[in-house]
Amino acid sequence: MTTVYLNGRYVPEAEALIPANDRGFIFGDGIYEVVRAIAGRLFEWEGHAERLANGLAGLRIEAGALASSATLRTVCERLLAANDLTTGEATIYLQVTRGAAKRVHAFPPAGTVPTVYAIASRFVPDRAMRADGATAITYPDLRWARCDLKTVNLLGPVLARQAAAEAGSYEAILHRDGWVTEGAATTVFVVRDGVLHTTPLSTAVLPSITRTVVLACAASLGVPVHEAATALADLPSVEELMVVGTTTDVQPIVALDGRPIADGRPGPVTRRLQAAYTERLYG
């Protein structure tokens, strides 16, 4: 049986009981992270820990030592060992909510203890899809105005991913006011005139850990980068289209809304970035 972490205890998943009045359940009042592990090694842990801390600060959840980088790193590593996940690949889901309290919209009384939960799971990358490419659809960005905070309130991405699933596609590429923001669960990159473009960081997009790694890979390869949003109208005519994320890696998108991107095959810049990212992931 899977061992999970809940509020300082390592317990069987079936015994991990959270009160029904937890604010994560009632309000979506919490922050989460998904961390990749390779043979027991946490990939880009510092970036994930920093983003989680920034998210907690943004929501004004005072978790202190309960959700410190050192504490959660120990939790992740112990869960990998407890679940026999120190070989192969795994992901660890971490969630911190404001805790259980009477249902009122304003913050609960000072001293309310946050809920800290984590679970580790086996992960098997879809290497065929990475090699051959995937399809995507475009979808309106219906999310709230602080998409830079990785909150557990994910109804917008849920609806977008469901629309993609119903269309037989992998991802939904979101747009707002005529401009591409990001994927439902990924960062979007395009290649135009040999230059790699991605939406600049703001409150409209998540500060993706994988985005940072891919930009570093591009710099090492000498691929020119321009951090600027892509107009939705220009998206079908880009030379290359890819989405990236913790469990997505560098994923070519070869067709959008049923129409091929360029020649319908992963492009050369995407392939170079895939190779560089894979080296950093497994090296």
From the structure above, extract its key features.
283 residues; alpha+beta; D-amino Acid Aminotransferase, Chain A, domain 1; D-amino Acid Aminotransferase, Chain A, domain 2; 2 domains; nine-stranded mixed beta sheet; six-stranded antiparallel beta sheet
In short:
This protein is an alpha+beta fold. It is built from seven helices and 15 strands. The longest helix is centred in the N-terminal third of the chain and has 15 residues, at 45-59.
Summed up, the helix count is 7
The CATH superfamily of the largest domain is D-amino Acid Aminotransferase, subunit A, domain 2
Principal-axes shape call = globular
CATH topology of the largest domain: D-amino Acid Aminotransferase, Chain A, domain 2
Distance between the termini: 31 Å
Strand-residue proportion:
25-35%
Instruction: Tell me what the CATH architecture of the largest domain is.
Output: Alpha-Beta Barrel
Order of helices and strands: EEHEEHHEEHEHEEEEHEEEEH
Q: Tell me how many strands there are.
A: 15
What kind of sheet is the major sheet?
Answer: 9 strands, mixed
